[in-house]
Amino acid sequence: MSEGYQFIETGISEQIGMITLNRPHVLNALNRTMIFEILSVMESYDRDDNVRVIVLNGKGRAFAAGADIDEMANASSIDLEMLNQFADWDRLAWIKKPIIGAVHGFALGGAFELALCCDLLLAAEGAEFGFPEVNLGIMPGAGGTQRLTKLVGKTKAMEWLFTGKRISSREALKYGLINQIVAPELLIEETVKLARQIALQPPLSIRLIKESVLKAVDYPLYEGMQFERKNFYLLFSSEDQKEGMKAFQEKRKPDFKGR
Ligand code: DAK
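Above: inputs. Below: predicted complex with 4-(N,N-dimethylamino)cinnamoyl-COA.
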């Protein structure tokens, strides 16, 4: 399925849909076309019954070093408004399947924003995150100030956003930005291992868990719990709920179909 894409590589194996950023000569700097390609493939994976988990990683020596500065350098506010590129980024929030990011080298600026949109993140030892936008006279615009603050709180977010400093994978782990640090040579192996584990779970449960957890970020507790309850009830209409509970009673492994 890679054919036709200029800046990413794609492929499905063992129910895992891979997306590999592929502009290594510029550390996978994210240009407009690349973002459009990422979203197009994510949406096609989201519709594809053969995919249960999406994995995003980068080729070469970095996940990605942010948005393509050459593409932005001469843009005016009006260009940005008329191009409405944030509309593509916003589509990320609608992906229903779990997305696992595998970060090595750098995840800076827009790439950090992309990583923060992943549901789970593994980082290679030595990986660095950060928002260097301030050094360029701009600021994050694809959710960085909001998602980072919700995750780490105002104080750390201000420090990192004001200074543009790079955050080590250890610090990222300490602040709950990532799930795990792994040796660089094991990054893909460990990511795929985790993806495989999730791919074995009932897809509808995973889908509604993701939806419910994301609501927790935006909703007050009571509203979030009402939302959770509806999803809980919904799962009792699924074949997988019957299969999961029957398999338990029959002391065998369940065979989940996503129905
Ligand atoms: N854009 C374009 N080229 C880049 C790049 C980038 N972001 N990052 C690296 N490169 C290129 C370098 O220019 C260099 O190209 P050549 O000189 O070889 O032709 C090549 O990649 C290798 O980079 P370095 O030689 O610099 O490698 P080093 O190991 O020495 O340094 C570095 C690695 C990551 C520390 C450094 O490359 C660096 O500081 N890169 C820039 C980081 C940065 O400021 N990123 C952009 C932040 S602003 C938007 C959505 C999102 C955003 C904006 C708009 N809309 C929807 C409108 C997001 C904005 C940002 O991300």
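DSSP finds twelve helices and nine strands in the chain.
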